[in-house]
Every structure is written in C-alpha cells, then in structure tokens.
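[Automated response] Your request has been received and processed.

Submitted sequence:
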Amino acid sequence: MAIGRPKTPLELSVEDRQQLESLASSRTLPHGLVMRAQIVLLSDTGMTNTAVAEQLGVGQDTVSKWRGRFIERGIQGLHDELRPGRPRTIDDERVAELVNKTLHTTPPNGTHWSCRTLADEMHVSKSTAHRIWQAFRLQPHRQKGFKLSTDPFFVEKVRDIVGLYLDPPDKAVVLCVDEKSQIQALDRTQPMLPMGLGYVEGFTHDYKRYGTTTLFAALDTATGQVLAQCKPRHRHQEFLTFLKHIDANVPDDLDIHLIVDNYATHKHAKVRRWLAARPRYHVHFTPTYASWLNQVERWFGIITQQAIRRGTFKSVKALVERIKRFVDTYNAKQSRPFIWTATADSILEKIARLCRRISGTGH
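Generated structure:
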C-alpha cells in the first residue's frame, strides 16, 4: 500500500509522454528542464512525491511544485518563467546622448572615444557604455580603409572583367596577371625560437637584408593553376619575358584574355607592339584603384602568408627557391579556382551605397 500525501490524478496523453521522454533523455537541454520531465514521468507511474524525491535526489517540495505546474499548464509549465530583472538605470535620452557623443565628438586629447573615457565623460559605468556600444554596433577603436576609383570607364571595365569571371569565353583561357615587387630576402639577427607547448614561435624584431626579387604570376581562373617567374626587377623587359613564358605554356589553339592593372610596365610601347602582333591576346585593364578585381592579388596573399612573411632567407637565391617550391607544390596539391560570386550590378550598388555615405558627411 502506497504511503504519502494524496495527490491530484496525473494523466498523460500519448503525445505528452513522447515529449516528456524526449526531454528526460536529452543531453543538451538545461538540467533543470530534464529533471522536471523525469519528475512527471515517475509521478505518472504511481510513485509518491517522497519516493520520486529520493530517487532523483531532490526535495519533496520540488517534486510537488513541478507536478502541480504540469497538471495546471502542461509541458509548457515546466519551462522557466521570464524574470523581471533589475530596472534600467539609464533612460532613452541618456542612451541617445551617449550614442550621439560617440558618433559626432572626440575627446579633447584623443582621436576617438574609449569605453573608459566615454564612461567618465558621461558619468556612467564602463560596462554600461560597452553594452550600449554593442547594442548599436559602435566600434570607435576600429577603422576600415577604402579608395574610390576615378576611372571614367569604371562601370564598363567592371562589367567586362566580372563578365569574364562569371561567363568565360569558349576556347580561351582567362589569366589574371600581376607582379609582386620588392620581396625582401630577410634573415633574423638571432636564431628563431621554435614553437612549444604553452608558447608561440619567437623571433627578433630586427633583421638583415640580402636583396629583393619580383614575382610575376599568372593565375588561370578556370583551374587555379599559376604560372610564375622571379625576376630581379620589374621593368617592361621583365614583363615581356614573362609574357613569352605564358605564350610558351598556353596551347596555340586557345585565345588568351589577360587581366592586368594600369601599371606603366603593362602599357609600355614595346609591350603593346608585342601583343598587337599576336591576335589571340586580349588585354583587359582593371579600373584605377581597383586592383581588388584581379584575382591574382588573392593568390599573392596566400603565398605571402604561407611561404614568405615568416620565412628566413640568407640570400635572394634561397628566397627564389622557396617561392618556386611553393608554386610547384601549390599547383600539384592545392590549386583550385577561386569562386567568384559577385555580379557587376552588386559591386556597383555597393559602391553607390559608399558614395551616398560619403555625400552624407558633407565633405
């Protein structure tokens, strides 16, 4: 015979039981919610509150509370109710004042506000200023660079180059060509400290210079493969030599579309004559101040990060060998085309938004 306080009858539908069993067996839900579902399921077996409390290691009052909440409100009653929390200590006008001061003023002795200086100015806590900045996505400590192209044919050139990326021509190869100049062969003045458990790689802040090289590269947008050569300088003579290297490595039956920037070397008279004598070449110049349209710039970032920036080289020859080894390995194992998704219209609309923002500053 069961001993304990008489209880209000507990009746579970098939759907309620399924939901409760799912809650009770969950490994990701809050522990409190899992425990409450277990209380209801055990109570449904006819166990007393005392027995349920002993089995789950909780107090009898806890069992009684959540059993009663389920009878009154169902499964929804097992969830925590929203708590009112502490009343706000800063009103809307003060919030607006703080935001306006952040946007339109600077401290007397600085270029931008910090949380601490603004909090002192506004006589609020540092955490309050920080929360308001987070709510309005204000980041006075950060800057973002930009440069608008002044090319009178900007729109036409954007549509031309983006068209090559999104809809490349048949029986042709599209090559993004550029040079990364003044790559320095640097050697640290003292040995590197290797990375270990609990500490990062260490190096001295000063270095020895052993000379520079220029990396010419042509990225095939369809395959991600790269043709590359290192030259001591980056005059039109070296660029012509690299063009001849491209010519020798691209099958004769394919047209070649070159995407290049407006560097004077690329427009030299001898370069123009060489290209004009070869009808399969089609040159597409990026707009001024818009080298970001050239995909090879992204590849330059990869080789800089992975092979050059943290390297140590005792000679230019060693630097050139490292670059060549990286290019060979990249083409053999890592190369894949960059996925270009931006349309010309989306790019132009983004620039239009930037122009509207600049117009709104009054400058």
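Summary generated for your ticket: The chain has three domains: 14-78, 110-142, 154-195+202-351. Strands lie at 172-188, 207-220, 226-231, 255-260, 281-285.
If you did not submit this request, please reply to this message.
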